[in-house]
Amino acid sequence: QVQLVESGGGLVQAGGSLRLSCAASGRTFSNYALGWFRQAPGKEREFVAAISWGGYNTYYTDSVKGRFAISRDNAKNTVFLQMNTLKPDDTAVYYCNTAGGSPRFPWGQGTQVTVSS
User: Which strands, in side-by-side order, build the sheet including 3-7?
Assistant: First the structure.
């Protein structure tokens, strides 16, 4: 059973940066495209960014283009999300999972990102 563990969230002022990490245990996920998702209070979980299995292609939702960067280290079974120029609208719980189609693994606990204005 794969377990996803997200970390790196916190409280930051608008304009600040955070780097999120997601580590998988129990099974390698190097063969999968991976993504970051977020869920703000009272809203449904939404797609943020994705990266192909080899790391050559990345995709972003419009609201984070130019500010966020997704990357991965398959040797460490980890995916990252560098978040710059954070805005209060980025406040949410951030999750990782496979990207494209239905998520393949159970959702982790997520990591809270709070951006103050």
Answer: 3-7, 18-25, 78-83, 68-73
